[in-house]
Design brief:
Helix content: over 70%
Radius of gyration: 17 Å
Number of strands: 0
Number of helices: 3
Distance between the termini: 14 Å
Order of helices and strands: HHH
Strand content: under 5%
Amino acid sequence: MLFLAILFLAAVLATLFFLIKGLVNMAGTTTQDLEGDGPSQRALRSNKLMQKRILFQAVAIGVAALILLIASAKS
């Protein structure tokens, strides 16, 4: 159970890390990024950061569900 708690905490912190990195990346968007042809490098980076955030968010939800399942089985 301790391992799952540590894994959950790590997934939550990774989610928070990639959320903040994505916000910082988005805050640096310039007019040139918005008006260029095709997706800019900043837009591609934002997309990758969002994908990583969603992945870690899914892991955190899965671990939380597993913790709740184990806890309900014990009682």
